[in-house]
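With this grant's support, we have settled on a layout for protein records. A representative record follows, to show the layout.
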Amino acid sequence: MPRAEFDRELRRLQGDLLVLGNMVEKAIAKSLDGLKRRDLDASQQVISEDDYIDQRRFRLEEECIELIATQQPLASDLRAIVSILLVAEELERMGDYAEGISKISLMMGDEPPLKPLIDIPRMGEMATDMLRRSLDALVNRDSVAATAVCVDDDRVDALYDQVYRELLTFMMEDPRTIRRATYLLWVAHDLERIADRATNIGERVIYLVTGKLTELNISKS
């Protein structure tokens, strides 16, 4: 494959990755909106559409593997393809977390949340902002921006700890709130994991640019 054609194929794969990222970002936003408005139809739609996210991830993975097998790229070209492969996996898992939030919404049914949803949507906004910026850093090969995304994960962790403590207080003061508090704990945990996945993407960008694997947030689990 001529160099120009290889570069076009690489750009196409990157474009497909961005489409996948956009789908995941919308799924996260829709899952939280459905939860907040108690829109069970919207929640069910997120669950149904997760199959499309899975399919796009697997198709992108197959195309990356085929390009590696047929072209045997070296050095930075190989890192670029491997990065797309790994980021696609992170995005697909984020989609799973959005699906999980929507499943929790369906479990809640028509019952209102235990408390007004303020901090949890804020966590969602922060996590999706990290996702968006991590993909921008990938496109721009910007390791500085990628590092900033990783650093911001601490803010999401701090907000998660705050939500956790508040919900735990509810449960201790009134055991009748345990079930509803647990639902919100699950949602907050899914959002915290989405932020962790965005951090992983930031680390992949640093790998792409520098060729070095670096873990910038050792608190990730």
Q: What stands out?
A: The chain has a mean pLDDT of 92. The chain has one domain: 3-210. Residues 3-37 form the longest helix (35 residues).
